[in-house]
């Protein structure tokens, strides 16, 4: 198969694919190289998934960095990233493959015009691979020069059960069966990362085929590290206060706790407002970046925020001594 | 094959085809040892794991000594070796078995028909009619049994919603190009168009049922109702709440109703205690709502609205619950009383936030519920309106 695409593949292969990490330490280093601050448990789960060629199933609240893991993987390993964003009603035609009907029609007309009488031959003609439109799932089974791609199945919980059932075959044997064409099997299995926000419980049968990892909110130390990497312009004082304040917020009884993404956004918002430290007014003005529910904002705004801030300042002062 | 009849009466799904299979199987294997017979029949009659203990006991009782049955019926507590691990379960099983075998006794030819046992309630049609209108609270045990059976046989239609999946349909509106091309290769000349149509499905159903003291007479019936709908369809989630909230969905998936209820009983710790409706709905909103209310679920809230804590924070939580589901239906057993007005603070807090407000105290009202669920009303029906409607109906009746 030599196509224009293959040529660009050769160019990309110059930036040859990096080998998979050989131990947990290597996995940690790999994530670090991609600016992803992970804790050891996550690195272990990821390492096992890579080593044993099983999908990694990441579940967790919105904004804790699940999707980011797949992106970082593809970037640091130099693999292609195939992203399948799920939604209700996602079907095989948009997830795996589709026949190119118009081209098939034309082919039939041409064959008729040429007086082609042999229907069987025609059938094998119009169901050839050139009439197949490949979607992410099918693409992921085709290794390229850089090695197997990273397949990100994002927010699987948004799909419905039939689609989940369809995934079972792909995730178990890394193969897709196309009735008109036969079974397509991956030479080297792709690196599969599945994420879910838990808006619905995923079926046990699918979870059984994966390594499961619950991505939790980071502790203060790790969150500070993340801020240093992702929002380097924030001063030390501001970063510390921001992290401490968010950690305090997560202990409150809120409907939706702020995730890491919100922390980073908030730090950047404060930088844009030229803040070097937190003050009650500044918090009140920017609370909408952190909290996304009106009830939550009403609960925290004003005296509660000031009170939390006082605690934060006192604790940081005590730690500095 | 009296044995097969006994098993059938005890609740195993055994049709005449199975009986013929069993006879053939015995012919093929030959009547050798008891063990051979046991496993031969086991292979034919048992096709689910949860049927095994029932079959096991039935076999031993039946083939060991038919006379044992009479003794057993007299004492109602059999002297068979029962594994002690799950006493509740085996007792329930044995009770069913006893019923089944007792029914069989009188059918045996050449014997005097014995006294019918009280709970072998073969109801006439008029008795059924009576049951339909009878309050759960006033039923005797035998009637309860019959009601449970009726609930189990009940189907709960829910309005169907179009999904984004298709199935081939001659009367469909859209052209299914893939199928069209495949058929066109078969015939010659013109291309025969194949059509498809959107598949329809019911939305997920979430049941929140109150099991506090004031609801205790109903909660058992409601459990049977939940068990019936859980096993009737997919995407059903059931929660119980009293002073705390517990998710019993998995326990109810057990096909055998007695086993399922035993599991639920073991899991839930706050039977017939107080109620913290506000707290429990808050917990549901915080922990479960995002996980089970996706994809436009319909919520059934079964409670009498009597809250021990004076309905603190209930209104806000109800509002949130209402806004995160497709439809919120409140089933209230107290509604049966003429002149009931939702005066309790809890009830007053709930009422503004429900789409529909129904009584649920007898089989008729459960059947009506089915009718309500199967039509999609205007969204955000003012419940107060439906309540007034209901009262007007009463006045007319």
UniProtKB/TrEMBL annotation, chain A:
InterPro entries on file: ATPase_dyneun-rel_AAA, CbbQ/NirQ/NorQ/GpvN, P-loop_NTPase
SUPFAM superfamilies assigned: P-loop containing nucleoside triphosphate hydrolases
Residue ranges of every copy of the ATPase dynein-related AAA domain listed in the record: 55-210
Pfam families (UniProt xref): AAA_5
Superkingdom of the organism of origin: Bacteria
Spans traversing the lipid bilayer: none
Gene Ontology molecular-function annotations: ATP binding; ATP hydrolysis activity
Gene3D superfamilies the record matches: P-loop containing nucleotide triphosphate hydrolases
Identification of the protein by name: ATPase
Species in which this protein is naturally found: Hypericibacter adhaerens
């Amino acid at each position: 198969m030599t196509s224009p695409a293959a040529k660009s593949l050769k160019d990309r292969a110059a930036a040859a694919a990096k080998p998979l990490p050989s131990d947990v330490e290597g996995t940690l280093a790999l994530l670090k190289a991609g600016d992803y601050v992970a804790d050891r448990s996550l690195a272990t789960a990821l390492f096992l998934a890579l080593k044993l060629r099983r999908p990694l199933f990441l579940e967790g609240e919105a904004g804790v960095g699940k999707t980011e893991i797949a992106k970082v993987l593809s970037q640091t390993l130099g693999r292609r990233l195939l992203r399948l964003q799920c939604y209700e009603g996602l079907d095989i035609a948009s997830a795996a493959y589709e026949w190119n009907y118009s081209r098939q029609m034309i082919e039939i007309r041409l064959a008729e015009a040429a007086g082609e009488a042999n229907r069987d031959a025609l059938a094998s003609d119009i169901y050839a691979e050139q009439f197949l439109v490949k979607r992410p799932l099918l693409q992921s089974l085709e290794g390229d020069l850089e090695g197997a791609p990273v397949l990100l199945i994002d927010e699987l919980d948004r799909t419905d059960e039939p689609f989940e059932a369809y995934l079972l075959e792909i995730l178990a044997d890394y193969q897709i069966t196309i009735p008109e064409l036969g079974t397509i099997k991956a030479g080297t299995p792709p690196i599969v990362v599945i994420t879910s926000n838990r808006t619905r419980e995923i079926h046990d049968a699918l979870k059984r085929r994966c390594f499961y990892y619950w991505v939790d909110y980071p502790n203060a130390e790790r969150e500070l590290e993340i801020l240093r990497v992702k929002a380097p312009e924030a001063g030390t004082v501001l970063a510390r206060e921001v992290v401490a304040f968010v950690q305090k917020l997560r202990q409150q009884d809120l409907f939706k706790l702020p995730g890491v993404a919100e922390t980073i956004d908030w730090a950047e918002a404060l930088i844009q407002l030229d803040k070097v430290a937190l003050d009650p007014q500044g918090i009140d003005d920017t609370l909408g970046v952190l909290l996304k529910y009106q009830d939550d904002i009403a609960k925290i705004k004003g005296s509660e925020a000031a009170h939390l801030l006082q605690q934060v300042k006192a604790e940081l002062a005590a730690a500095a001594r | 094959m009296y044995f097969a009849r006994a098993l059938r009466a005890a609740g195993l799904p055994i049709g005449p085809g199975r009986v013929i299979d069993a006879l053939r199987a015995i012919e093929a294997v030959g009547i050798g040892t008891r063990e051979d017979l046991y496993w031969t029949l086991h292979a034919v009659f048992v096709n689910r794991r949860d049927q095994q203990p029932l079959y096991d006991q039935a076999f031993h009782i039946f083939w060991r000594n038919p006379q044992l049955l009479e003794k057993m019926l007299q004492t109602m507590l059999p002297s068979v070796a029962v594994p002690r691990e799950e006493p509740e379960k085996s007792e329930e099983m044995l009770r069913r078995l006893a019923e089944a075998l007792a029914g069989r006794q009188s059918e045996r030819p050449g014997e005097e028909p014995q006294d019918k046992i009280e709970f072998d309630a073969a109801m006439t049609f008029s008795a059924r009619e009576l049951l339909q209108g009878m309050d759960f609270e006033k039923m005797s045990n035998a009637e309860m049994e019959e009601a449970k059976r009726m609930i189990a046989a009940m189907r709960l239609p829910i309005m169907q919603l179009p999904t984004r999946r298709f199935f081939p349909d001659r009367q469909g509106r859209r052209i299914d190009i893939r199928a069209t091309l495949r058929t066109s290769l078969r015939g010659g000349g013109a291309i025969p168009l194949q059509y498809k149509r959107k598949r329809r499905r019911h939305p997920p159903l979430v049941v929140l049922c109150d099991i506090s003291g004031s609801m205790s007479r109903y909660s058992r019936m409601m459990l049977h109702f939940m068990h019936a709908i859980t096993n009737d369809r997919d995407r059903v989630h059931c929660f119980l709440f009293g002073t705390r909230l517990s998710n019993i969905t998995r326990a109810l998936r057990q096909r055998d109703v007695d086993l399922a209820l035993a599991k639920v009983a073991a899991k839930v710790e706050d039977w017939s205690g107080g109620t913290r409706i506000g707290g429990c709905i808050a917990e549901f909103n915080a922990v479960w709502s995002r996980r089970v209310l996706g994809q436009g679920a319909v919520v059934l809230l079964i409670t009498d609205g009597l809250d021990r804590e004076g309905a603190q924070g209930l209104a806000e939580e109800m509002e949130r619950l209402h806004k995160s589901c497709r439809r919120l239906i409140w089933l209230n057993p107290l509604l049966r009383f003429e002149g009931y007005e939702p005066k309790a603070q809890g009830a007053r807090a709930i009422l503004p936030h429900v789409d529909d407000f129904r009584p649920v105290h007898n089989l008729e009202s459960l059947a009506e519920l089915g009718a309500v669920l199967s039509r999609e009303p205007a969204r955000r029906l003012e419940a107060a309106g439906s309540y007034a409607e209901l009262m007007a109906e009463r006045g007319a009746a």
